[in-house]
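TICKET: design request
STATUS: open
ATTACHED STRUCTURE:
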């Protein structure tokens, strides 16, 4: 391998990153080679990890840098999870271990997504039911004051519970996705360490 092949492979492995991030990484390694000089190119190649390992680290670093900036946005957390999956694929790991880790991450994301969807539907149903029940209480006001107050009270309670569930969703979902991303990163780092031990 030479500098040109190293840079080409690294660029290919980083293609999922934003162009600016790719250029920064490539620029860093080109400068690293230039500082060492043409005569020391092979020494630099021996010193550096493979393009796959470097790409894996850069992808996971980008995912977590991106995740820390926007913790409160679940959409960004999802992109972080996908970057972690890409980092896993870029790492020179045993294929079955990488596949198993990806499946675990995907399963966790699906479960959290399904539970989140269920809570959103529950929130909408509670608020909608509360509004309907409150209006029903107003409608039966002429038939009996105590019945009307009971319906209005139940309606307001349902609306309150619905709003509480909605707020909990907004607070917990980003934290759960961040937790999944952190768990995936820890698993990736463990797999990398075990892979390096096997290489030694």
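STATUS: resolved
RESOLUTION: sequence designed for all positions
ATTACHED SEQUENCE:
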């Amino acid at each position: 391998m030479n500098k040109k092949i190293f840079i080409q492979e690294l660029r290919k492995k980083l293609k999922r990153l934003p162009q600016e991030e790719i250029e920064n990484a490539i620029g860093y390694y080109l400068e690293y080679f230039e500082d060492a000089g043409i005569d020391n190119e092979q020494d630099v190649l021996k010193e550096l990890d493979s393009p796959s390992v470097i790409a894996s680290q850069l992808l996971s670093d980008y995912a977590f840098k991106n995740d820390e900036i926007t913790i409160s946005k679940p959409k960004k957390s999802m992109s972080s999870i996908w970057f972690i999956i890409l980092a896993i694929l870029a790492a020179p790991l045993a294929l079955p271990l990488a596949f198993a880790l990806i499946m675990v991450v995907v399963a966790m994301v699906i479960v959290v997504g399904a539970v989140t969807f269920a809570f959103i539907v529950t929130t909408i149903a509670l608020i909608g039911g509360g509004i309907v029940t409150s209006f029903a209480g107003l409608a039966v006001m002429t038939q009996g004051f105590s019945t009307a107050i009971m319906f209005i009270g139940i309606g307001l309670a349902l609306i309150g519970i619905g709003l509480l569930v909605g707020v909990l969703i907004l607070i917990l979902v980003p934290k759960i996705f961040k937790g999944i991303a952190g768990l995936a990163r820890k698993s990736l780092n463990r797999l990398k360490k075990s892979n390096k031990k096997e290489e030694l």
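CLOSING REMARK: Residues 73-199 form one domain. The chain is about 85% helix and 0% strand.
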